[in-house]
Structures are given as structure tokens and as C-alpha cells.
Q: What sequence folds into this?
């Protein structure tokens, strides 16, 4: 709406060229006044509508990453039970500054649902400090702006028939004004159209990747994707049916191959948001064994320009073996260490079920194109990953004992470096290996004390070269599941 209002102002300026006080109310001036009134009505009315949007609340403490500028900031709040707020935005002024104590105090936050703008915060414990209002919730002045614009537009339209005509403008003035309007309007239309085409192309690529079935789709299926996106392909080595790794890279950040700062700023002013989509396919012996899909979307241009939301769905051979297993073939996570991004990842193995594959690649790319709302939250790019990660974080209990189901045995067999059946020989953790299931005994671990099987009982021991170890209860079913996991890892050619 702001862009449309700006175009109305630009279109109104030529109407006042050649204006004279003797004939102030002529049709040219009235057209210009009507366009100015329309601009005021659109800007003020839309701002009033935005500030009247529904309000939501969240209770928690500000967590990293959070960035602050001179008069605005991007913040994320985390609840003690594990839930996280959307990507919120807050503004302040020199007369109403953001209180420093809010950075490290549990808060009750109220924000608008449409634009995620914080309007009110208060400490959970009111004795710590008083509440703070951002001042961005007032509707009086923007409503007056909209009413004045509407009145000016209606008055200009009502007076138009009775007004006289001004002498026509010189042709060169008309040509310059028309060329300027066409240039600005054409540039905005081009950016909107290219963003829409980028979104359509990214969604087409996503459908192709979602359609690939690991361990079932063939080289022919992968090659059809390679041919459909031939202009966006990147390969490290020549492809063949026996071995092929290729990537499809779609960029939304530049015009052609130009990356000039001025051009980027022109694109941004016209509504362009940087975006990037990367899909990768891996083929071995004529069969698709791996696929991945990565989406990077620029955060709304508020406090910091250039920060991005990143969501990565990838096929992996296995998971970190000592992490408490939530599922056998799928994991959700949020990596740390990124200074200017909010990221989520989903990892699946080639043996994941169709339902797990659908969850892993359930991207929503609707906010990449010229939409009313930009990607204001990483969860909008992958709602399933955000929901599942919150559920698993809230349910995580580091003291909860591990339940050794066949799936858990299979996962440890697949993901650990070494596995063996042992017999415990003493309370101090001495043991004797009776069967080596995987790896070697070059660096045998010490069992140590703790909750170990009694002396003389069997157990299944998993360990790695860092001396990390896990002791599992022995059962024939468990040994069979471990062997199944080892065979699964050995069959993966990646």
C-alpha cells in the first residue's frame, strides 16, 4: 500500500506544473489533489487498519540471536517450557527509549498479529520495574491522515466538473512526466513479476524433489530434473547413471549477473527480498540415494538488512549416535553459531517412511514472492519443522531413562562406530567381549561404575573413538536389531 501511495504522489506532481494563483482550482490541480488525497487515504487508512489488527501475547525472556539498531530491534522470546515466540519487531524513540532491563528480565509481551510489532511489554514480576508501551499502537493520527485524504479526494472529484481547464502543457513536459511514470511503474511491475516467477519456479523444483523416492526412484527420474532446470545446474564432476551429484540453484538476489550495491538498493525499494533455493540430488548405481532442499529468505528489512531465515532438509546416513533418539529415521533441530540468521534443519535417512519424507520436505514457499506478508518467521518456511521442534524441546527430559525398543537398538547399531556383546565380570566395570558386532577393539572403553548389569550378565556395548560409550541391556531381539542397523548403514553407498 505504501508503494501504491508513493506512485500516486509521483503521478500527482506533474499535474501542478504550470500552476497559477489566478486559476488555482482548475482540472489539472484537482487531478493532482485527488491523487494526493488518494495517497493520504491509502497510507493513513492502511496504517489504521494495521494498528487495529488482532493482538496476541507471549510470556518469556529475550533470547539470542537478537539484534538492536538505533531505534528498533528484532527479538525472540523463549518460554521456560521450550516454546518460542515469532520473530518480533519493536520500535522506540528518543523520548520513549527501550528500557535496558528488558533484555534480561522475563517479560509479558503483547504484539500485533499481522505485522508482529510489539506494542506493550511488562515484567512478569511487577516489582522489578514498570511496564513499557512502544507508542506504535495509537490510531488517532493515522486515522486523521486517512480521513483528510478521503475528504480531499472527494472534494476534488466533486469540484472537477465545474472547474476550468488550464492551457495544455508543453509536449516535452508531458513526455518527461510520462516517461518517468512508465519507468517507475515498469520497474516495480518487473520486480513483482520476477518475484512471482521465482516463487513459481521454486515451487516447481520443490514438487520435483518431493516426488523423488529414495532407494526407488531411478537415474531417469533424477535426469528429468537435471534437464528441466538445465540453466540452473551445478555439478562437481560429469554425471552418469552410476554416479551423479548435481545441485539446482535458484537466486532471487540480483538482476542477471549484476550485483552492484545501487542495483540491489533499487530492487529492495521496489519490493525485492533476497532469496535463494538450493536442491541437491545424489545418484548411485542408477538409484537415487540422497536429496536435499535448502531455502534462504531475507528477514523483513527492519533493524538489519541482509539477515536471513534458513531451513535445510537433507538426507543423511545416520545421526549423532549419543543423542537421545526421538525417532529412528528423522530428526529436527536448530543449529547455533549463526550471527545473522535463524535456522532450522530436518535430517532423514534413506529408510524414512513416506510420511516422514513428507514431513521433512513440507516447505511453504508462499512468502518468497510478492505477497502481502514477507517471511516474518522461520516457521513460516517450514511449519512442520517448527512445530515438531517445539514439541520435542518441551518434552525433552535429560534424566528420563532410555527405553530400549528394537528401533533404538537399530539406531545405535547404525550410527555407532563400534558395537559388541560383552559379559560383565565385576562391579568396577570389567568385561569380556563375547561377540564383536561392528568395528574393532583397538580402543576399548572402560565401563566404570554406575547402573551396570550384575556380574556374569550379558550387555551390548556401543562406543566411539572419543571413549564415549553406551551400555544397553542384552536380548536376542536387541542383537538382531543392532545387526539390522549395521546392515542398513553398510548398504548406504553415500
A:
Amino acid at each position: 500500500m505504501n508503494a501504491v501511495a508513493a506512485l500516486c504522489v509521483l503521478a500527482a506532481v506533474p499535474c501542478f506544473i504550470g500552476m497559477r494563483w489566478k486559476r488555482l482550482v482548475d482540472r489539472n490541480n484537482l487531478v493532482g489533489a485527488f491523487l494526493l488525497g488518494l495517497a493520504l487515504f491509502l497510507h493513513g487508512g492502511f496504517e489504521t487498519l494495521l494498528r487495529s489488527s488482532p493482538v496476541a501475547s507471549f510470556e518469556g525472556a529475550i533470547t539470542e540471536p537478537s539484534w538492536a539498531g538505533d531505534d528498533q530491534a528484532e527479538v525472540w522470546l523463549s518460554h521456560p517450557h521450550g516454546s518460542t515466540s515469532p520473530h518480533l519487531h519493536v520500535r522506540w524513540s528518543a523520548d520513549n527509549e527501550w528500557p535496558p532491563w528488558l533484555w534480561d528480565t522475563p517479560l509479558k509481551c503483547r504484539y500485533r498479529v499481522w505485522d508482529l510489532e510489539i506494542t506493550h511489554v511488562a515484567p512478569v514480576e511487577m516489582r522489578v520495574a514498570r511496564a513499557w508501551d512502544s507508542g506504535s499502537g495509537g490510531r488517532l493520527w493515522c486515522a486523521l491522515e486517512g480521513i483528510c485524504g478521503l475528504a480531499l479526494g472527494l472534494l476534488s472529484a466533486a469540484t472537477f466538473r465545474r472547474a476550468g481547464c488550464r492551457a495544455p502543457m508543453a509536449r516535452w513536459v508531458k513526455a518527461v512526466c510520462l516517461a518517468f511514470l512508465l519507468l517507475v511503474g515498469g520497474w516495480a511491475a518487473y520486480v513483482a513479476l520476477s518475484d512471482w516467477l521465482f516463487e513459481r519456479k521454486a515451487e516447481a523444483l520443490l514438487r520435483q524433489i518431493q516426488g523423488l523416492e529414495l532407494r526407488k526412484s531411478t537415474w531417469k527420474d533424477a535426469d528429468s530434473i537435471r534437464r528441466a532446470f538445465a540453466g540452473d545446474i551445478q555439478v562437481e564432476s560429469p554425471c552418469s547413471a552410476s554416479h551423479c551429484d548435481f545441485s539446482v540453484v535458484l537466486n532471487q538476489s540480483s538482476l542477471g549477473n549484476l550485483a552492484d550495491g545501487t542495483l540491489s538498493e533499487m530492487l529492495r525499494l521496489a519490493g525485492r527480498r533476497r532469496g535463494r533455493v538450493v536442491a541437491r540430488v545424489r545418484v548411485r548405481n542408477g538409484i537415487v540415494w540422497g536429496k536435499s532442499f535448502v531455502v534462504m529468505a531475507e528477514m523483513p528489512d527492519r533493524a538489519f538488512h541482509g539477515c536471513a531465515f534458513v531451513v535445510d532438509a537433507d538426507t543423511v546416513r545416520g545421526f549423532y549416535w549419543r543423542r537421545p533418539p526421538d525417532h529412528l529415521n528423522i530428526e529436527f533441530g536448530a543449529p547455533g553459531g549463526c550471527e545473522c540468521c535463524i535456522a532450522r534443519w530436518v535430517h532423514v535417512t534413506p529408510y524414512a517412511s513416506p510420511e516422514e519424507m513428507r514431513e521433512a520436505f513440507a516447505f511453504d514457499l508462499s512468502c518468497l514472492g510478492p505477497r502481502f506478508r514477507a517471511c516474518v518467521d522461520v516457521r513460516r518456511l517450514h511449519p512442520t519443522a517448527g512445530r515438531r521442534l517445539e514439541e520435542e524441546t518441551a518434552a525433552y527430559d535429560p534424566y528420563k531413562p532410555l527405553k530400549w525398543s528394537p528401533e533404538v537398538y537399530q539406531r545405535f547399531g547404525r550410527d555407532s562406530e563400534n558395537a559388541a556383546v560383552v559379559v560383565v565380570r565385576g562391579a568396577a566395570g570389567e568385561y569380556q567381549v563375547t561377540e564383536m558386532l561392528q568395528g574393532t577393539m583397538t580402543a576399548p572403553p572402560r565401563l566404570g561404575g554406575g547402573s551396570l548389569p550384575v556380574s556374569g550378565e550379558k550387555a551390548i556395548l556401543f562406543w566411539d573413538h572419543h571413549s564415549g560409550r553406551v551400555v544397553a541391556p542384552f536380548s536376542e531381539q536387541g542383537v538382531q536389531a543392532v545387526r539390522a542397523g549395521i546392515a542398513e548403514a553398510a548398504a548406504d553407498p553415500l
Observations:
- The first strand starts at residue 55 and ends at 68.
- The mean pLDDT is 79.
- The longest helix spans residues 171-211.
- The chain has four domains: 2-50+141-169, 57-130, 189-395, 406-491.
